[in-house]
Fold:
Amino acid sequence: MRLYPAWLFAACVILPACHESSGATDASSATAGNVGGGRGGTGGGSGTATGGGAGHSSQGDAGSGQSGMTQTEACQAAVTAQCERSAFCLGNQAMLPDCLRITKACPDYYFSADSTRTIAEVAACLDTLATAPCTDVVANLYPSCLSRGKRSEGAACAFPSQCQSGVCSGGSACSTCRANVAPGQSCSTAACQEGSFCDRNTWTCLENSALTHATQGQPCSLSIKPLVGCGGDLFCLQGSAAGAGTTCMPAPGAGQPCGSGVPGGSTVCAKGTACNSQSNTCALLGACGAGAPCGDASYCKADGQTCAARASVGEACGDPISSSLAPCLAPAICSSGRCSLMGGKGDTCDATHACDRFLSCVGGTCQPLSCPVDGGAG
Structure:
């Protein structure tokens, strides 16, 4: 299952991290779809505004309007809302810290050159981003309250918000705006046009009207037509009784069997809990076996029973489920198999101190990636 949905940024088609080929790079393989832009990216975290410069917002961290927010604040709030909603709807709270890293690229992630977004527009969209039906998140429906950019297919881009399609993906340095496909066409390698979504059963774009939303207790199905999803925080889950079909119901809480039937084969549990793969029951987030949750400096090993220390900066790291290696102790991230600290906007960088995603090392400091349409130097 994809880490992030395309509506995020979306999430979302998973895109390679943008970075300058001449500077320190983010070697992390986990990247965001469009959180802020539409399908293809997201973010959360802190950042300060920068102004001027080709490819950057000419307004810098412009203030305000009726919302009383700055560009940075609006960008961070939107990306955070998208990341949190995706983590809940995809049943994967572990993705949240990585997803929130993208806020380090704010405000540029939302308000860079050729983005058409305004602070007022983004502020008005926050509630929609935070409460979108989980069915829509999983289906990668693009939020209509977020406008798209001015750059056409094939133009250079750093952020999805710069593209007419809402999709910025491609190379290892600056990326390119990708085209969307129309209803009835294949979405196996492309995102669908606005007003449509990708049916994962046939990998074909369908009009949004082809997906309806049932209420709690009503039957639902995302595998056969007509497609019937669920509203709000409800999930289309398999009933526990023998032969039971799928119905719209809340995510199960602590002590209950993990919810199944979610597209992609993942399981879901209520907020504050996670699925213990050993017992297939929802447990308090961070809980290990029958004991208390592991502390911030530890994690629950793949056996679901034992807390172990997280890896420190410079130590080997990995996915504890697939590799048995420990995850990193925050704020370090696992990059090229080693825990490292990634620089945020304005932080010092060099060959051994890399910048986080969507940032590049320019003159010894981490700055938002600049990708002029003409392909010139940023």
Q: What stands out?
A: The radius of gyration is 20 Å. Residues 1-7, 9-34, 36-59 have pLDDT under 50 and may be disordered. The helical segments are 71-89, 96-100, 108-111, 119-131, 134-138.
